[in-house]
Amino acid sequence: MSNQSWLKPKYVESEVNGEKLRFFPISMRLLFRLRDIGKSLAKAIASIFNRDEDHVGSTTRNVTEGEQVMQVTEIEAISPELAELREKKRVEAITDVVDTLTDPQSGDVVAEIIMDSLRENFDRNPSPQQIEEFRNALDAESLVQLMAGVGAANKKLFDPLLKKVPELGAVVEGRFGNKEAEKTPSSETVSTGTT
User: Fold this and answer.
1) pLDDT at position 116, please?
2) Domain membership flag for residue 39
3) What are phi and psi of 130, to 5 degrees?
């Protein structure tokens, strides 16, 4: 199998608390662990990205100017009440994502996923004690930056969640009471290098 270059792991470099780390795609072993939190997370993410396009009205009409006929489409604005309801649903969905990620039962799975993605920094098969120690050492800002790195390394798997990381970060920091923490977006660079 060593001659199969397509099996060589690609990584993404992402900054976490001022240090560049290499995040690798999640291993198959951990993909199956994602099922533990996947359903509730998927439901919340679906709510975040629900466009509710059926609540927007549009009218199409033909306008004649001389010999030219143009088709004009007018999109009717939604009511302020509906806009407020949509925003409330979106915030609740983001909160549901954060609740899932910070739930004690999900904490070990999230910590193990991060450790797996940071395979240059952790044992390949960490013990439950190592996972618990890592999870307990995380602060809200670090969790957000680490999840951004994991998401970037697994872009196709986590792309919808990755787009919402800044908003999720604000909710996570609010949960942990760390509202004064400076919110710094992570920077990522993709490399096709191997370890």
Assistant:
1) 94
2) yes
3) -65, -40
Is residue 111 within 8 Å of residue 135, measured between CB atoms?
yes
Q: Which residues contact 132 (CB under 8 A, 6 or more apart)?
A: 108, 111
Q: Are strands 57-65 and 188-191 parallel, antiparallel or unpaired?
A: unpaired
Average pLDDT on 132-154 reads 88
- Asked whether residue 150 is domain-assigned, the answer is yes
- Domain that residue 98 falls in: 25-50+58-191
State the number of CA atoms in the 13 A half-sphere of 116 facing the CB.
20
Cα–Cα distance measured from residue 178 to residue 138, given in angstroms and rounded to the nearest whole number: 13
Beta bridge partners of 189: 13
Average pLDDT over residues 141-145: 88
Residue 97 lies in a domain: yes
Nearest Cα neighbor of 120 from 187, 29, 28, 24 is: 24
